[in-house]
Design brief:
Keywords: 2Fe-2S, Iron, Iron-sulfur, Metal-binding, Oxidoreductase, Signal, Ubiquinone. InterPro entries: 2Fe-2S-bd, 2Fe-2S-bd_dom_sf, 2Fe-2S_ferredoxin-like_sf, 2Fe-2S_ferredoxin-type, 2Fe2S_fd_BS, Aldehyde_Oxdr_Iron-Sulfur, Beta-grasp_dom_sf, TAT_signal. One of its GO terms (molecular function) is oxidoreductase activity, acting on the aldehyde or oxo group of donors. This is Aldehyde dehydrogenase iron-sulfur subunit. It comes from Halioxenophilus aromaticivorans. The protein is an alpha+beta fold. The chain has 3 domains: 26 residues, no CATH class; 78 residues, Ubiquitin-like (UB roll), CATH 3.10.20; 84 residues, DNA polymerase, domain 1. It is 37% helix and 12% strand. It has a 5-stranded mixed β-sheet, with helices on one face. A hairpin with a 2-residue loop joins β3 and β4. α4 crosses α7. The longest helix is centred in the N-terminal third of the chain and has 22 residues. About 6% of the residues have low confidence.
Length: 223
């Protein structure tokens, strides 16, 4: 009796033929691939310890030695590990300015900077500016001028404003201390331009500029 399939098989016979062929292919592929256990053994295990490093830095005038994952952003170090939650995570892409902090007096977006890059740096967050009982003069100005609504961007606005005013003193005589005195006059348009990296979704821009303008003028009067 011939095993050759009929030239015009029925539907049932066709399904039997294709099922048998598929099983044979599957068996062949299975014999060519390693088992799951073998794959697991062949892939080298990466120890998390390889991604950890100790970093020494100063935050709000406190010297710290922190062991952290080298992939940790400065923002996540501040918020998640050190619980300095005044610095806010907004866009996490460097577009809103809510995470602005001061590093050696210069304003940066903490979400775009790895913590391990700041070995030996002096970092100031909003917690380092003042306390509820003893506000920084600019913080006091924000309260006086109602320069916030929801307050989410405020910490970044404050740090950015102080950094911006320090930048404005660059090139001035060395006896002038940039973080204390603002010997230059900035127009409202200049302040707006220099602060354009900090977004306020509530739209309190005019009041923010009012507070910064008054603070700068107050410091000029001390010269």
């Amino acid at each position: 009796m011939s095993s050759k399939p009929p030239s015009n098989p029925s539907r049932r016979e066709f399904i039997k033929l294709t099922s048998t062929a598929g099983a044979g292919v599957a068996a062949t592929v299975t014999t060519q691939l390693p088992s799951a256990a073998l794959v697991e053994i062949s892939v080298p295990t990466i120890h998390e310890k390889a991604f950890h490093r100790k970093v020494n830095l100063t935050i709000n005038d406190i010297d710290l030695s922190v062991e952290l994952d080298t992939r940790t952003s400065l923002l996540d170090l501040l918020r998640e590990k050190l619980k300095l939650t005044g610095t806010k995570k907004g866009c996490d892409h460097g577009q809103c300015g809510a995470c602005t902090v001061l590093v050696n007096g210069t304003r940066i977006n903490a979400c775009l900077s790895l913590a391990v890059m700041h070995e030996g740096d002096n970092i100031t967050t909003v917690e380092g500016l003042g306390t509820p009982d003893n506000l920084h003069a600019l913080q006091d100005g924000f309260v006086e001028h109602d320069s916030y609504q929801c307050g989410y961007c405020t910490s970044g606005q404050l740090c950015s404003a102080l950094g911006m005013l320090t930048e404005a003193t660059q090139g001035m005589p060395s006896h002038i201390t940039p973080d204390l005195l603002i010997p230059v006059t900035l127009s409202r348009d200049e302040i707006k331009e220099r602060m354009s990296g900090n977004l306020c979704r509530c739209g309190a821009y005019q009041n923010i500029v009012n507070a910064i303008e008054e603070y700068a003028e107050r410091d000029r009067e001390t010269l």
